[in-house]
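Saturday, quiet lab. Running sequence design on the structure tokens for the scaffold JK sent over.
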């Protein structure tokens, strides 16, 4: 008789720290998206003094340092998944590209296209992390590209909210306790249909938590942008309405 599979949240499990890293990376990227949205919103209503743009450099540092740490953790927690190195390389290369864009020469279109390609590389580098991670990352990549290419400057940054929600959905999905619940529920279900239904419900819970968390972070991280104390100013520099 084959013993049933058991899932634990022990830090000694070989993928525990990789899952923690994915959770933290998605949460940090969501916070960046929220700051970026808040920055653009502040400028659109005349509050140019609220943000310095330092969040871009926090993102660059997080991606470069995170890629190095993840590479080290991958070697220290066998079995090593060489697909993951594609994801880590994409993270580091994207950070380096952003630094070049901010410090050397502005190239927004090139950055947008390269970020999309590297996000796709990140997604396919994590194909062994379940059926949800890669598809959601591919959707995020397409949304971020649409944001950068959108023709209306006053509307394009709404995409950042959608991206933040999806990133937080993944962060909740890979949060250790949530992953424990997911795996426990799936392992108890018998039959592919029941497992699929269970995964659909879990995804609904994750995306609901993503929405709630994104709204909470907006209110917590940038309350001054949404307090309505300043009348709306057109992005083109027009008169107040």
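Result came back. Writing it out in full:
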């Amino acid at each position: 008789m084959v013993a049933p599979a058991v899932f634990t949240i022990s830090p000694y499990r070989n993928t525990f720290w990789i899952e923690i890293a994915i959770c933290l990376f998605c949460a940090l990227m969501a916070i960046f998206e929220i700051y970026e949205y808040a920055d653009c919103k502040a400028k659109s209503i005349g509050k140019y003094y609220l943000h310095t743009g330092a969040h871009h450099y926090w993102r660059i540092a997080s991606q470069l340092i995170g890629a190095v740490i993840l590479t080290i953790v991958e070697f220290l927690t066998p079995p090593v998944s060489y697909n993951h190195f594609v994801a880590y390389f994409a993270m580091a290369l994207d950070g380096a590209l952003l630094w070049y864009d901010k410090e050397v020469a502005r190239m927004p279109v090139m950055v947008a296209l390269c970020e999309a390609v590297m996000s796709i590389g990140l997604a396919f580098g994590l194909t062994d992390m379940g059926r949800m991670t890669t598809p959601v990352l591919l959707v995020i990549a397409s949304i971020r590209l649409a944001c950068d290419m959108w023709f209306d400057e006053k509307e394009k940054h709404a995409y950042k909210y959608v991206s933040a929600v999806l990133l937080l959905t993944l962060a909740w999905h890979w949060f250790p306790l949530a992953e424990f619940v997911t795996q426990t529920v799936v392992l108890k279900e018998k039959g592919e249909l029941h497992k699929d239904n269970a995964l659909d419900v879990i995804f609904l819970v994750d995306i609901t938590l993503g929405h709630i968390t994104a709204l909470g972070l907006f209110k917590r991280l940038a309350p001054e942008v949404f307090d309505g104390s300043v009348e709306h100013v057109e992005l083109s520099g027009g008169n107040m309405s």
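Notes for JK: Residues 1-7, 230-241 have pLDDT under 50 and may be disordered. The chain has eight helices and no strands. Ask whether to fix the surface positions before the next round.
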